[in-house]
Structure formats: structure tokens, C-alpha cells
Amino acid sequence: MNALNIAEYTQTLGLQAKAASFLMARAPAAAKAAALRALARLLREGVEELAAANAQDLERARAAGLAEPMVDRLKLTPRVIETCAQGCEQLAAMPDIIGEIQGMQQQPSGIRVGRMRVPIGVFGMIYESRPNVTIEAASLSIKSGNAAILRGGSEAIDSNRALARLVTQALQEAGLPAHAVQLVETTDRAAVGQLIAMPQYVDVIIPRGGKGLIERISAEAKVPVIKHLDGNCHTYVDDPVDIDMAVKVADNAKTNKYSPCNASEGLLVARGVAGEFLPRIGSIYAAKGVQMRGCPEALAILRGVPGAELAEATEQDWGEEYLAPIISIKVVAGVDEAIAHINRYGSHHTDAILTRDHLHAQQFLRDVDSASCMVNASTRFADGFEYGLGAEIGISTDKFHARGPVGIEGLTSLKWVVLGEGDVRA
Amino acid sequence: MNALNIAEYTQTLGLQAKAASFLMARAPAAAKAAALRALARLLREGVEELAAANAQDLERARAAGLAEPMVDRLKLTPRVIETCAQGCEQLAAMPDIIGEIQGMQQQPSGIRVGRMRVPIGVFGMIYESRPNVTIEAASLSIKSGNAAILRGGSEAIDSNRALARLVTQALQEAGLPAHAVQLVETTDRAAVGQLIAMPQYVDVIIPRGGKGLIERISAEAKVPVIKHLDGNCHTYVDDPVDIDMAVKVADNAKTNKYSPCNASEGLLVARGVAGEFLPRIGSIYAAKGVQMRGCPEALAILRGVPGAELAEATEQDWGEEYLAPIISIKVVAGVDEAIAHINRYGSHHTDAILTRDHLHAQQFLRDVDSASCMVNASTRFADGFEYGLGAEIGISTDKFHARGPVGIEGLTSLKWVVLGEGDVRA
């Protein structure tokens, strides 16, 4: 397609999505659940067909010399497909929140006023590699009564096409509009530029991928973006604290997995407990090969730990999202300094205090300006499934609209409903 | 100031606002209420001082040949000031929603997860002429625990400066940071361009004024905007309907006031009741001098009304926000056509159905894609005070974040709170 054709094609997708969104907004809960169950069935029945499509993507990726971890992320194994199918079934079984009416109260004038939860309309999802995101986004879109336009990575185009065919079939089986979920079939990048600049058709854009992709989309979008940039999360070990508990949680927050955005990248330790706490966590990190980049005071204590890989933390370290076996460590005077450090250097994603002090806990929860604030828990819990959302379309580090893990509710809005009996305004 | 100085000045305002926002976020409810009560007192004590400042604005406006209705909007009369003072007292008496925790539930892992309502941070308000908006915005900002940067119209700069001094004094009396509410003291337009492009300091922009201003700000802003564009509202008279009730409400929806955004600009009438309803509403509109722009079918009926000022509606009329004694009138087959018309031509602001039919009422509430959907009530009720919000910072015609009338809650966000007892992720 040339530029003109791509513009026309994307506009057509938008027009079709908008039309489908009105039908989806009034679709019965039972039809949406039926579509999700049908999709689960079709995914299981289609394992071989999907494997064949996926093989084309894998072959192309290997021929292009893609690194093996990247090729891995492309794979649509029977296990990945089964996880997708189970996700659809779980969504089907969840309560349908569309149409819920909140807080209907009579006002002094006599009118009754409340708010009704309705779908946002059309969302555009832009993502990279993993083809299972196609099913995650499609199923969340169906459950939330929205229409979706999906733009996956060009490296997964054959897998995504095969998956999108199953989605269309499931929608049709359930009597829902086929255009409720559409895949952008061209791999031309110009389509992304079009998709994020059609406020008349697209109500919100959700990018998932590397920081570069997300920054570019945020800068260029003409519609609202639910975006997730850095996850520079902190664990603060307060004084007083149960040292055993603090060691266990600080270990988990860093080493449970290094790549997720909710892994802790910074460890702050109250001066009063640093002498006891740091050698213990230090020897665990040393054993697991985690490099510790500390302030001078932390390093002075950690130098006694056998095998510790130590470095002096620079100003840049405090703001860094390592996504690797590295952690920055700073000794602080107490909760005030910890909160100030987090609000200055953190990315407003997830931060935890480990403490026995009730007032410190309350202060931390109130004053830390992050999407998730935790007491005595691992930052690794910041996740839609762990929070009971049943599904997660992404994690927002913005404060506007949805914040933190975004589930079905983040894809809805509340409109006002007014019931009168012929009431007029004085 | 030159461009460089304005950039520096606006950055300083932003930096000060951000610092103040952290202090405001943890300010006790009692301190915020005390500041609002102090502001009410200072406004009443300052009536003469404010009149003197306002006189300078009025003199300048008249010298510049401003039309008298525009000059009227600038006036800071004792009555306007008393209304502002009462508004502050009402806000002081309202419950404080900051810190509220919602839905704390234990998850399968053992952690308890809920959401805490917190201020957004810093909002920028850009508005025209009426200086009382300075007090409305300042008081809402104080109550909601945010910091605000206010940019009023240059024609009201002396009044706004005098009002802002009182706000600062009230904040200081209550022990709150003086920078929690700042007025942009320069009338240079470049300051607006700066204000809407500082995502590091400003979390949301709220423009209030003409459509031109709002479109320009939306197009250029680098931060989220709570915006209100058109109010092309509809009243649909269904079949079956109580004709007396329909006449009363359709009259009020159009003629109660012509200038507000929630006045009905379009009247849709079901064919089955048009013969009975249209002559009755037509004679009322005729008596009040409201021009009726109808479809051929409506005009055929209305031609029998003595004194009716009639015109044929063009395609453009269906999408028009008149804000004047003009109404478009269309005869439709029934509720399906009415909903389709509203979703196509309306501005997603406020639309009402007048009906006795329960299923039609439910269908209208569900399928009309507007911020406010009403049954048997005048569209004029779409207002923060009428909805029980206690105050209104604006009306949003967007779906993202706040929708419809925006009160204190629209200036807050919900962050996640996680309480554990040393929980770690498996």
C-alpha cells in the first residue's frame, strides 16, 4: 500500500470500529461471554493451524538473524495457546460491569442522579512481538463492550492474522459484529501514525512495548494514551522493622524476577537498622550475583560481605530502571528522607515500606506519589491479576483516568443518568 | 517580560506549584476548611478594595470599547463577591474525600488491596473575563488538596490580582503553602503556551472560555486537558408520552435560558405524537420569539401555529449549538431514529427522552453516547450543583477520566494501596 492507501485503509478500520462499538456497547452480557467461550474453543481446536502460521513468523525471524530470546517471545506454543484459552474462559466467567449504575440519589430539585458504567468506545492497541497479546487485547475488548483495533509487531504478522481470524469467527458465532476486533493487516509503520491521530474514531491508545515506542506514540498521539514508561520501584526498610521479614521481602522484590517493571531497582535503608540489615541482604544478593551500587555509608557496611560485587552509586543510578541483577542502595535518616528520595527519583510506579511503625506506614501510603504504595509486601505484587482485576491491559504510570494496573474498568467510563418525572429547572 | 523571561517565570511557577502540591496532598482536612472559611471572610472584608481593583479593569475595558455585555461579565459586584464567599463556605462544610480508601479486599496471595483517593497534583486553569472564576478555581483547588496555577483573562488582571492576594492570605492564615494557588501575573499570551507544555510540573489543564480558546489549547497541550467543547443537546419526545409533561419540559429545556451549554438545541418528536405535541410547543416558542427550524414534516404541522417564525432546517442545523432563541425540530419514526440522530449530530453532552415507555427509557439511557442521559427531565439540569457535586470546575465532553460535570472528584486520582505482613510473590 502507498501512503494514500494506508490512510484510507486506516480510516476504514476506524469507521468500522466506531460502528461496531455502538453494537458492542449494547450487546447482552451473555453474548459477550459466549464469544469468549467460543474463542477459547477455537483456540484449542486451532493449535495446529496456529502452529503453522507461527512457523512462518519464526522462520522469517531466524532468517533475519533475530536473537534467540526475541524468537522465543514470538512462539505460539500449545502451552501459550492453552493459557490464552483459559484467560478467555476466566473473563467469560467474570461479572459483567457494563450497565452498572452507581450512587443514584435524589437531589433537592427532585431529580434522581447516578452514574452508569459504559464502554469507552474504540481503543487502539499497539504492541510488539508476543502474539498472545492479540488474544489478551481481543478478549478484554469483548468483555468490556468496546471495539478494538490491534496493531501487532510486523515480525508476528502471520500468527496475528491466524489469531484474528479465530476472533472474528468467535464474534460471529455469538452474533456480535465482526468488526468489533480488527487487526491492522499491513505492517507499514505509517498505519501506526494514522491510528493514533483519528480522534473521531479512536477514543484511547494503549501502547505496549519498549520505552522508545511508547515515548514516540505519546508524543505524536492526538488521542489519550494509557501509557507505561519506567518502573523504577523502591523498597524502603524502616526503623523499627522485623529484620527477618525485611530480608525476605527485599530479596523477593529484587530477585524474584529481574525483567518485570515491578521489580525493585532501589533499596533504601533507615540508618538505625542498616548495620544489622545490610550485611544479611548483602550476602543474599552476593550469592545471587546481584551487583550493589551503594552510597558511601551503605558501601562501608557492605564491604564486609564476602563475594559482594560493589560499586559506588552515581546520581544517575538513583533514577535508573535496571531490569537486571543490579540494585542501588542508599542509607537514609528515616521515613521522611525515604519518601523525598522516592518522589524525586522514582517513576511513580510502585514503592514499598517495610516497617513495624504504624505512623510511618500511614505517612508512606499517603505521601508517596506512586500508582501503588505498599506496606510489608514485595513490589512484585503490582499486577492486575494479583490485584484481583482478573485481567490486565497494561500498567499506567499516569494519574489521569486509570492508574497502575488497568483492567476492564480502565476501558470504561461513567456517564451520568438522570431520572425525573417531568422535572424542569427553576 | 521577553519570551525568555516568560519561559523562566512560568517554569518557576510550575516548580513552586509542584512543591506546594506535596504539602497540600498531606494537609489536614481541618486546615483546608480553615483556609476556605478565611477566604470567605477576607472576600467580605475586602469588598471595597476589590471594587477599586475591579474599577480599573472596567475603565480599561470601556476605554477599549468593549461591548457592555462583555463589561458586565467583568463586574465584581458585592453580590458576586458574596456568592463567591458562600461558595467557599459550602466547600468548607463538605466532606473531605482525600484519603478515602475504597474496596480494600484480601487477594488469594494474602495481600489486602484497595484504592486511596489522592489529589492529582497540579492543575492549570485558563479562563476568560469573569474574575469570580479565580475564586471558584482557587477554592476547588484548596478543597481537593491540589496546587493550582491560574491564568485569567488580561481584561480582568487587576481584579484577579486583588483576589489572588486574598487567596494567598487565606492559605497563610491556615498554615498552608502560599504557592498552593498562584496567579500568572503577566498578561502575555506566551505564558499560556508555556503553561500547557510543562508535563513535569502540571498534571492537567482546564480551559474555560470560547470554543476557539479551547480548541487551540487542546491541539497544543502536552498534558491532559479536561475540556468542554459544544453543547448541542437534544430533547426527544417519545410515543407514548404525557403531552402536558412533554410541553412543560421541552419549553424549559429551550427557553429557561438560551446561553448555557445544557439548553436544548434540537427537538426530536415521534411521528405518533407530533400532530398533538408540535402545535402546543410551537405556540409557546412562537410567544417567546423562538425561531423553529424544522424538517418538512414538522413545518407542515407548525405552519398552523399563529405567529410562528419558521425556517427549513439544513443539514448544518442538526449539528448547530445556537445558544440563542432558535431550535431545530425533526419528526422521527421513534426511539431508534432519535438515538441514531443524537449519536450522529449531537455533541455527547446532554440528551433527554420524554416518555411513558419503560423499554424506550432503558434503551435511551444505554445507547445514547452522551455524558448525561436523562429521562423525563430538562437538559438544563446538567450541572455540577444540580447533580449534588457541591461545586463544578467544568463540564467535560470527553470520555477519558472525568465525564460531564466535573467536581472535586475529577481533580483526584485513585492510587493502589497494598497491605501485607511480609508477603512475597511466588
From TrEMBL, chains A, B:
<dbReference type="GO" id="GO:0005737">
    <property type="term" value="C:cytoplasm"/>
</dbReference>
<comment type="function">
    <text>Catalyzes the NADPH-dependent reduction of L-glutamate 5-phosphate into L-glutamate 5-semialdehyde and phosphate. The product spontaneously undergoes cyclization to form 1-pyrroline-5-carboxylate.</text>
</comment>
<dbReference type="GO" id="GO:0004350">
    <property type="term" value="F:glutamate-5-semialdehyde dehydrogenase activity"/>
</dbReference>
<dbReference type="Pfam" id="PF00171">
    <property type="entry name" value="Aldedh"/>
</dbReference>
<dbReference type="InterPro" id="IPR016161">
    <property type="entry name" value="Ald_DH/histidinol_DH"/>
</dbReference>
<dbReference type="InterPro" id="IPR000965">
    <property type="entry name" value="GPR_dom"/>
</dbReference>
<dbReference type="InterPro" id="IPR015590">
    <property type="entry name" value="Aldehyde_DH_dom"/>
</dbReference>
<keyword id="KW-0521">NADP</keyword>
<dbReference type="InterPro" id="IPR016162">
    <property type="entry name" value="Ald_DH_N"/>
</dbReference>
<dbReference type="GO" id="GO:0050661">
    <property type="term" value="F:NADP binding"/>
</dbReference>
<keyword id="KW-0560">Oxidoreductase</keyword>
<keyword id="KW-0641">Proline biosynthesis</keyword>
<dbReference type="GO" id="GO:0055129">
    <property type="term" value="P:L-proline biosynthetic process"/>
</dbReference>
<comment type="similarity">
    <text>Belongs to the gamma-glutamyl phosphate reductase family.</text>
</comment>
<feature type="domain" description="Aldehyde dehydrogenase">
    <location>
        <begin position="16"/>
        <end position="281"/>
    </location>
</feature>
<keyword id="KW-0028">Amino-acid biosynthesis</keyword>
<dbReference type="InterPro" id="IPR016163">
    <property type="entry name" value="Ald_DH_C"/>
</dbReference>
<keyword id="KW-0963">Cytoplasm</keyword>
<comment type="pathway">
    <text>Amino-acid biosynthesis; L-proline biosynthesis; L-glutamate 5-semialdehyde from L-glutamate: step 2/2.</text>
</comment>
<dbReference type="InterPro" id="IPR012134">
    <property type="entry name" value="Glu-5-SA_DH"/>
</dbReference>
<feature type="domain" description="Aldehyde dehydrogenase">
    <location>
        <begin position="318"/>
        <end position="383"/>
    </location>
</feature>
<protein>
    <recommendedName>
        <fullName>Gamma-glutamyl phosphate reductase</fullName>
        <ecNumber>1.2.1.41</ecNumber>
    </recommendedName>
</protein>
<dbReference type="InterPro" id="IPR020593">
    <property type="entry name" value="G-glutamylP_reductase_CS"/>
</dbReference>
